[in-house]
């Protein structure tokens, strides 16, 4: 987890030379984690996994597990700036003044962060192929090493976005998994840090793309045997990789 930004005393004394935006960034204890937040958002956005108004991210504050940073609602994601990222507590209370509101899917993010103390980051995306996999009710098959690592893709049914029920259902499904697809909606991935949640999101979308393409070609894909899947999972354990 990136360390908090500490402003050296001599820097505080000479703050006059900084612009108001630079001063805000220098005085923000979450400058580093917000930078990583935006880099991950940019990566997901460039791949079409987060769309202008679809998908959102939350990350636990490095200095306080009872606080989180979340994406605002109604902001075009490509142009999201550090000062638009909102700091809230795990009950959803805003901890700073802002003209923005937390994403409408905040209840799901917070239900996950409350239920899983081991989780520090939640990435929610609207991936085209993973969503198609869910709505077409395709069978999850170990078509690649990545697919063998992911093992299976749990699916829960659509519930009203932002409802308490939606949070309970998704957090419940994530009690024994780090990822779940909401049918007719999108994907939630949680994990120890933003890079994990983003990387597994990318991995799941690539697997689903392979499965959807096989379906579109009308072929039954040749899958890895149970022995090979077991071998891959054993190799993962020896490399301390937990997907
Ligand atoms: Zn969504």
The SSE order reads HHHEEEHEHHEHEEHH
**How many domains?**
1
The Cα radius of gyration reads 20 Å
Question: According to CATH, what is the topology?
Answer: L-fuculose-1-phosphate Aldolase
Name the CATH class: Alpha Beta
Percent of residues in beta strands: 5-15%
CATH level-4 homologous superfamily: Class II aldolase/adducin N-terminal domain
Give structural notes.
It contains nine helices and seven strands. By secondary structure, the chain is α+β, with helices and mostly antiparallel strands. It has one domain: Class II aldolase/adducin N-terminal domain (L-fuculose-1-phosphate Aldolase, 3-Layer(aba) Sandwich). It has a seven-stranded mixed sheet with strand order 3-2-1-4-7-6-5, with helices on both faces. The site of zinc ion (ZN) has 6 residues, from loops. The site of zinc ion has 6 residues, from loops.
């Amino acid at each position: 987890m990136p360390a908090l930004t500490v402003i050296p005393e001599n820097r505080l004394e000479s703050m006059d030379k900084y612009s108001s935006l630079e001063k805000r960034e220098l005085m923000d204890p979450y400058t580093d984690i917000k930078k990583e937040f935006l880099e991950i958002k940019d990566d997901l956005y460039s791949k079409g996994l987060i769309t202008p108004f679809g998908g959102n991210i939350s990350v636990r504050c490095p200095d306080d597990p009872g606080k989180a940073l979340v994406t605002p609602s109604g902001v075009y994601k490509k142009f999201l700036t550090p000062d638009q990222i909102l700091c809230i507590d795990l009950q959803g209370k805003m901890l700073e003044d802002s003209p923005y509101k937390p994403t409408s899917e905040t209840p799901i993010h917070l239900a996950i962060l409350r239920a899983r103390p081991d989780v520090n980051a939640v990435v929610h995306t609207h991936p085209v192929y993973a969503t198609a996999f869910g709505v077409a009710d395709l069978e999850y098959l170990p078509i690649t090493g990545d697919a063998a690592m992911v093992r299976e893709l749990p699916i829960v049914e659509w519930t009203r976005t932002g409802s308490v029920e939606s949070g309970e259902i998704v957090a419940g499904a994530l009690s024994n998994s780090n990822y779940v697809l909401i049918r007719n909606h999108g994907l939630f991935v949680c994990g120890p840090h933003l890079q994990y949640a983003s990387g597994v999101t990318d991995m799941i979308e690539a697997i689903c793309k392979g499965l959807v393409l096989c379906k579109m070609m009308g072929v039954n894909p040749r899958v890895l045997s149970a022995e090979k899947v077991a071998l891959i999972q054993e190799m993962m354990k020896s490399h301390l990789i937990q997907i």
